[in-house]
Amino acid sequence: MPNLVVLGGGESGVGTAILGQKHGYEVFLSDASKIKDAYKQTLLLHNIPFEDGGHTESKILTAETVMKSPGIPDTAPIIKKLHQHKIPVISEIEFTSNHSPLQTVGITGSNGKTTTTMLTHHLLADGGLNVGIGGNIGKSYALQVAEASYSSYVLELSSFQLDGIVKYAPHIAVITNISPDHLDRYEYKYEKYIDAKFRITMNQTEEDYLIYDADDEATANWFRGNTTRARLIPFSIKQKVESGAYLKDDKSIVINIDGGSLIIHTDDISLQGKHNYKNAMAAVIIARILQIEEASIRASLKTFRGAEHRLEKVSIVRGVQYINDSKATNVNSVFYALDSMTTPTVWIVGGVDKGNDYNEIMELVKEKVKAIVCLGVDNKKIIDAFGSVVDRIVEAGSAIDAVDSAQIFAEEGETVLLSPACASFDLFKSYEDRGKQFKEAVRKLQE
Predict the structure, then answer these.
(1) Does the keyword Nucleotide-binding apply (predicted)?
(2) What are the angstrom distances between the C-alpha of 29 and each of 96, 102, 142?
């Protein structure tokens, strides 16, 4: 019988299965859905037994350890049975860290974690470190530890991945910010989601670092009732901080770490907008802790390109800038997007609502948005929220319809922004699919 069962046959699951096999585990992988052909071929190549389309409980319930892929909720029947049988259920991050002594940087947060993770990796790799990137981005952490030869890793960590850790402790942890998201996985209790994010620091020691947004309300509230042993390093765009990073006169970021000071002009950062200055602050703090040279940091900040589907400038068509921010699946993300707009904006919004409070962006919508295109099956909540604020609101049932409608409203020198504030699953396979369809629709305008 298997002593390691892997639940989920995607990137995380297949990587864990390969790592487990390498360390001598008898592995069995099970997926309630159909496993993609590419992953099936990988499992067959490694002679790893698997099943899809259902779970064989008799095998699963004999496991010594179960690795649960992050997409599987704790409320799934098989997970409940595993808990009843007191079988440990952990995440890929926990399993991999148990089999790797390598130092990690762990980055979590409701928004900005992908950009911060990519930028951090860019700074460290350009600075000469043999560093991998994984977690919630790219190839699985487990697969890279099994097959690659990196000396350290930068990991993007979701709350779901952090839910499944027991002993994992990053040497450097970052919490970019916290705002309501994925509350359906946390009994619609915001405090449980916040606690999940702060699991990133629960095993850190005095030798480790926790970098955090000093402007973030949820983070500040957590610190009022909780502590961590890690060394705290804040960053802020609103206040000066003695040890950490802050924005000075809206023109430069100042980083003070271990008695050394570094000043970087915002014009020298490839990613613009105050939210991106925060991402840059976190990444530069990490680079300084890991002793990357100042000249290298400056050069790398100029050359970095952002994540796809995150305030991605698609093209300018007849004088109108089209921006793909499909990854913005909550109101907080849209706040940052709208805040960075410098021209009148046609806003494409909508999808599967996750409990959004649109009052949080009402003033920005009044100030920035000239028209709204609703891209979703049920748009009533959006129309009710903004019907008295924005004169022109239309509905669209596809990316092509949305772009066609938006280009009617947008004039030369203005912007069309896809920043949905919602999940994508009513009309699209994923936020990536939504973003790609949007970009294709924009390209068709140029034909």
Answers:
(1) yes
(2) 16, 26, 15
Question: What is the distance, to the nearest Å, from the Cα of residue 109 to the centroid of all Cα atoms in its chain?
Answer: 7
**CATH number assigned to the domain covering 312-445:** 3.90.190.20
Read off φ and ψ for residue 139, nearest 5 degrees.
-70, 150
- 373-431 residue pLDDT tens: 999 999 999 999 999 999 999 999 999 999 999 999 999 999 999 999 999 999 999 99
Task: Kindly state the tokens that stand for 203.
Answer: 């095993």
Rounded Cα distance between 379 and 347, Å, is 14
Provide the residue ranges of all domains of the chain, joining segments of one domain with +.
4-90, 94-303, 312-445
Quote the pLDDT of residue 306: 78
Closest CA to 257 of 292, 295, 301, 219: 292
Q: For residues 32 and 60, what is the distance between their CA atoms, to the nearest angstrom?
A: 12
3-class secondary structure, 417: strand
pLDDT of 1:
52
CATH class in words for 4-90 = alpha beta
Instruction: Give the integer Cα–Cα distance in Å for 278 and 65.
Output: 39
Residues 26-62: b if buried by 16+ CB within 10 A, e if exposed: ebbbbbbeebeeebbebbeeeebebbbeebeeeebbe
Alpha-carbon gap, residue 134 to 139, rounded angstroms: 6
Burial of 382 from C-beta contacts in 10 A (0-12 / 13-18 / 19+): buried
**Separation between Cα atoms, residue 300 and residue 290, nearest integer Å:** 15
Identify the three-state secondary structure at position 384. helix
Superfamily for the 94-303 domain:
Mur-like, catalytic domain (3.40.1190.10)
Do 143 and 133 form a contact (C-beta atoms < 8 A)? no
pTM of the model: 0.80
For residue 28, which of 54, 59, 74, 58 has the smallest C-alpha distance? 59
Determine the straight-line distance between the first and last CA of the chain, rounded to whole angstroms.
59
Report which of 84, 290, 51 is spatially closest to residue 172, judged by C-alpha positions: 290
Compute CA distances 238 → 233, 368, 404, 406, whole Å.
15, 22, 39, 35
- List, for residues 297-330, the tens digit of each pLDDT value: 999 999 998 778 988 989 999 999 999 999 999 8
